[in-house]
Amino acid sequence: MGIDEINLTDPAFWTRPLEERQAAFATLRRERPIAFFDEPLFGDTPVGPGYYALTRYDDVVEVSRNPEVYCSGLGSTSRPQWRPLATTPTTSLHGEVTPPRCPR
Questions:
Q1: One digit per residue, pLDDT tens: the chain, 104 residues?
Q2: Which residues contact 82 (CB under 8 A, 6 or more apart)?
Q3: Phi/psi-derived region of residue 74, left when phi > 0, alpha when psi is between -120 and 50, beta in every other case
Q4: Is the separation of the CB atoms in 33 and 59 below 8 Å?
Q5: Which domain holds residue 29?
Q6: Per-residue b or e along 28-63, where b marks 16 or more CB atoms closer than 10 Å to that residue's CB
Q7: 57 vs 54, 60, 99, 101, CA distance in Å?
Q8: Is 98 domain-assigned?
């Protein structure tokens, strides 16, 4: 799968065999470690500006340790059941609570 064919927003991506998904993430880590994707449609929910997917461990650690620098503001999530949580100013890119509301 080529770098421009990888779409983490597409539900079909997640139905591919595990080996294909692992290879896609290896490609992202190598060629586009901080990749931007359009947000998915969730019924009549307005589509947001998109999101960045971090695929390298060190980048995830950096962002996790510095929420004041990398805070996503109002946040976003790829899980519709987390949408109410994602509208608060202390949520991270994946609906996880960031400091000061979460334990470290």
A1: 899 999 999 999 999 999 999 999 999 999 999 999 998 887 888 888 888 999 999 999 998 898 888 876 555 555 554 444 444 444 444 444 445 555 44
A2: 95
A3: alpha
A4: yes
A5: 3-87
A6: beeeeeebeeebbeeeeeeeeeebebbbeeeeeeeb
A7: 8, 5, 20, 23
A8: no
Cβ atoms of 57 and 63 closer than 8 Å: no
The verdict on residue 54 lying in a domain is: yes
- The answer to whether residue 47 is domain-embedded is yes
pTM exceeds cut of 0.70: no
Quickly tell me which residue has 């996503």 as its tokens.
Answer: 72
**Which segments within 6-104 are labelled E, that is strand?**
34-37, 51-54
